[in-house]
Design goal:
Helix content is 37%, strand content 19%. Helix 1 runs antiparallel to helix 8, helix 3 packs parallel to helix 5 and helix 6 crosses helix 8. A seven-stranded mixed sheet has the order 3-2-1-4-5-7-6. 33% of the residues are buried. It has one domain: Rossmann fold (3-Layer(aba) Sandwich), CATH 3.40.50.150. By secondary structure, it is of the alpha/beta class. The chain has ten helices and seven strands.
């Protein structure tokens, strides 16, 4: 099996059975924009990490930035002092509204990449953080990023699928075994097969929490697990058993390549 097909099939294995979805009182795919805005404000206050460093390398001379899957702008807004123009693309109008409160001058494009790529101008730097695991056709997606970059593309993703941290919960609460792949290494294989030459850096993000309270974390986890409100206490007990209230470092990978 080639790398692109393996990636697509590995992502398809993450589909949640319909009977579990039917028991949920909210869909598991989205989180409140406040969570993403909080991440952005933290990165604005202390811009750090290899992804930030690889981006600033090519903005020694200020230039335009395109942020694909922008969320609230955690990847792009810390580059503001080096940015001449910012275009943010996201499927969620709510996320883009959160970004706009922090960057009123940004150009906002609501839609799915690469469907909206023809509407988006090229930029000196293209950034795309924590989006790849939502993209079955990864080669097409990445080539469209490359086509829009004059200087560099910088991508950040977790080492393993971001929902893999909930695998033990799905097993205990739903009796459902979840996949282990794909991984960042699989994404690199797809990019190389597509003719790109990404450089990679693995690193650990310090132990931080995206949530202001344990209750907020519980509610987000309950949504991710498709649990109805009636099972909230059961989830709380399990989270305390697993020490979910204690943040852990997260393995991340930064990829970058020149067009």
């Amino acid at each position: 099996m080639n790398a692109a097909a393996h990636w697509r099939e590995a992502l398809a294995d993450w589909a949640i059975p319909q009977e579990i979805l039917d028991g949920a009182d909210s869909m598991p795919w989205t989180l409140p924009p406040d969570v993403f805005a909080r991440r952005t404000r933290r990165q604005l206050a202390h811009p750090t990490g290899p992804s930030y460093a690889r981006a600033t390398q090519v903005l020694h001379r200020p230039g335009s930035v395109l942020d694909v899957g922008a969320g609230a702008g955690a990847a792009s807004l810390p580059l503001a002092t080096r940015t001449t123009e910012l275009t943010a693309v996201d499927e969620s109008a709510g996320m883009l509204a959160a970004l706009a409160t922090l960057a009123p001058g940004a150009r906002l494009v609501t839609g799915r990449w690469p469907d909206v790529a023809p509407e988006v101008p090229p930029a000196d730097l293209v950034v795309c953080h924590h989006v790849f695991y939502n993209v079955p056709d990864l080669a097409e997606f990445a080539l469209a990023l490359t086509d829009h970059a004059r200087r560099r593309v910088v991508v950040e993703l977790t080492g393993h699928h971001p929902l893999a941290v909930l695998n033990a919960y799905f097993e205990r609460l739903h009796g459902l075994s979840r996949p282990k792949g794909p991984t960042a290494a699989d994404a690199v294989a797809v990019l190389r097969q597509a003719g790109l030459a990404p450089k990679t850096q693995r690193w650990l993000r310090p132990a931080i929490t995206e949530y202001e309270t344990f209750d907020e974390l519980v509610d987000a986890t309950r949504r991710r697990l498709c649990l109805p409100a009636a099972r909230r206490d059961e989830l709380v007990a399990l989270m305390r058993e697993y020490r979910a209230d204690v943040p852990q470092p997260r393995e991340l990978t930064t990829l970058w390549w020149e067009p």
